[in-house]
Amino acid sequence: MEEINMVSAKIPFNEQIRLQELYDSRLLDTPEEPIFDEIVKFAALLCKVPLSLIGFIDVDRQWFKAKQGIKFSEIPREISVCGHTILGNELVEIHDMTSDERFFDNPLVIDGPLVKFYAGMPLVTSTGSCLGTLCVGDIVPGKLNNEQKLGLRVLAGNIVSIIELRIKNKSLSNLIDTQKSIISVLAHDVRNPLTSLKNTIELRESNVLDDQDVSEMMGMVASQLDSTLQMVENVVNWGQLHLQFSKLEFNDFNLHQLINQIFELEALNSLIKNNKLLNLVDENKIVYSDQNIIEFLLRNLISNANKFTYDGTISVNCKKNGNQTILTITDTGVGMTMEKANELLNGTSSNTTLGTNSEKGSGLGMLLVKEFIECIKGSITIESIINKGTTFTIIF
After folding, report:
1. What is the pLDDT of residues 179-202, one digit of tens each?
2. Residue 391 in 3-state DSSP?
3. End-to-end alpha-carbon separation of the chain, Å?
4. Hey, is 117 helix, strand or coil?
5. Three-state DSSP class for 358?
6. 3-state DSSP call for residue 142?
7. By the 8 A CB rule, do 232 and 185 touch?
8. All domains in the chain, ordered by first residue
9. Which of 112, 204, 265, 355 has its Cβ near the most Cβ atoms within 10 Å?
10. Is the link from the previous residue into 107 a cis peptide, with omega within 30 of 0?
11. Rounded to whole angstroms, how far apart are CA atoms 241 and 89?
């Protein structure tokens, strides 16, 4: 067998971000669609060539969303000509592949479909990620004129617009679902303590309750209001962070210092519950993410841990696994069944567990936590044992 010395393309500098955007488009391995098929047909007609395709570059393959003149639906990334094209933002044109040292012995050139001419336009999103290409080819050497080059640029721009619209529609759909959940929770959990307060005042004014009864009922109402205020604060923070969704700010920051700041805010609540707060993260630990979102996640989970722990400890730790950061928030509290934990993660829980001081939760905090974890392309898991404690693990 003849030895192949072709040159494989380099990996883009923003490969992980690029791949995530590609996956967010939810286009990989989807059925053919007329809107893309028509673009491919028109590109071939415009450039007067038999081969045309829209291809997306995955981790180890190039997959074709639409194609003309080609039978297979994907090729290995290592032989992909478009793998070279996505390294830039401009049209790449190769008049004769057999004369190019990178491709003269490429299987696509020597085995089939015997491509000799290639022109590819990168599909670059507004964030600068190149997901794939719109390309045309021929089995004989060729050259595009200026009108054909302009046409490919315009068609590629239309493809990107379609992709970004789909991503935005997905985000909008998720946002609407979250808003509906928030409205549902607010309608129930804000009304209850206010109604209780109103009823207590009315009963006292009508002399149905004496001072001792009022004092006891006000104590219960105060506990309800505390939970409601925390929930409202979550909603406010959620809204503020959503305002910056289109411009997430990923920076290096000191995680140990951030946790200390959150512990200061939680100090009074932990003192009341006789809980110890332990920051086990290295003092010099620097992580790269959106600091506001990480703060929101930690504040919610630490506050939640304090709610379900009495005379115990709440610790935060962190470790690295390659390019992943693994955060753990562990308490020695009341714990929960794994069935309950799964319901919490899936948003299917119909009731909430009372805290050690009978604090009532709404489940809203976890709903928002999950949404923001998805925003930074992370994941969350729960491990818990009844009367032993709970560990929340965030990976991003």
Report:
1. 666 665 565 556 656 666 676 677
2. strand
3. 45
4. strand
5. coil
6. coil
7. no
8. 15-168 (3.30.450.40), 171-395 (3.30.565.10)
9. 355
10. no
11. 31
